[in-house]
Amino acid sequence: MTKIADLSHWNWKNGVVNLQKIVDLGFDAFIFKATQGTWMVDDCMKESVEQARDLNKPHSLYHFLDPCMDGMQDGNEQYEFFMEKTEGLHGELPDALDAEWRGNLSKADYTALVLDFLIQPTELMLLYSNLNFLNNIILQPDDVARYADIWLSWPSLYASKPRMPLHYKESEVKLWQYDWTDFDKNKVLDEAWYRSYVTPPSNRVITLIVPEGDTVNVERY
Q: What is the CATH number of domain 3-203?
């Protein structure tokens, strides 16, 4: 299984980023914390992205959904803040929304906040949360039926084997966070989905079936 580390400034003493250390532990890609609410930009984001690019390792960015501070109950504004602060820093993999803390919001209001954020992107984002939070707060059956096609699921469950969120098909779950010791560790559950983002176009195989005796010109793209 492909392994992905998700990292933030909390993982680096004195802000000194060393991704080679993580690569040496067998990790193939990264998801970096970028922003939180409409007030915080992670101090280590830019250096982390630069090192990932230098190491030729795929990466993406995530936003921590903050529901508690005044004026932050607007998912649209949080998405705009995330995009403004991450311009030019996005990577090969889908970006993610970290939704695991609802503060004093009701279930309905928190789910609305999540959806307000996730309906903004033109491409699907990963939705990260722990399994219990997904099952009991965000993913009510009606919500999944209406909205599951606007995100890709990334649950955390610290156990030897992954377990799917309720109301979800196994094929809809792309990553599984299996451990948080030292840093958050994730495994790719859908390798074909992962490869679709990281395989260079020139290495993709094109199969053409033509009638016998015909000729065809093929150009790499």
A: 3.20.20.80
